[in-house]
Amino acid sequence: MAISSVSAAQEVEDHEPQSRLINGRYLQAFDFFDDDLDLCDNSANPLDGRPELGPCDKSRFPQCSSSEEICYNRKPSRDHFHRDDHQHQYYIQYDRVFCYPRSWGGCSSCSPGRYCKSERRCILQEEGYPCAQWF
Known about the structure:
Layout: H1 8-15, E1 19-22, E2 25-28, E3 40-41, E4 53-54, E5 68-71, E6 75-81, E7 88-91, E8 98-101, E9 114-116, E10 121-123
Antiparallel strand pairs: 1-2, 3-4, 5-8, 6-7, 9-10
C-alpha cells in the first residue's frame, strides 16, 4: 500500500481561488479560505467597537448544501494595516458569511476591493497597486 503525501506546491494550490468555465467565460470559483492568513472578528459584539482579530472558528461558518458555495465577504479593517504597504488588512465577520447558489458562478471575496492572487490578500486601493496577478 502506497502512502501519498501532499507537496508544498499542492498545499498552496489548495488555498488559492480556482476559476471555472461558465457560459464561455472563466470566473472565480466562489471563494477561498486560508488557515494561515485569514482572520476573523472574534469579539463578543462585532457591530460595536474595534474588531478582535484572530484565528477563525470554522464551526461558526454556515454549512452549505451541495447546490451552494460559501462566500466569506471579507471586509477591510479600519484599525489594522499591513506593515509592508499600509493597505487595509481584511477580515471575516461571521455574520457576513453566506451560502450562495453555485449558478451564480462566484462572489466578492473582498468587499470593497480586489483580490491580489500573487500576494494572497485583498487590496482596497487597487488603482496603481503593483499586483503581479489580480484575480
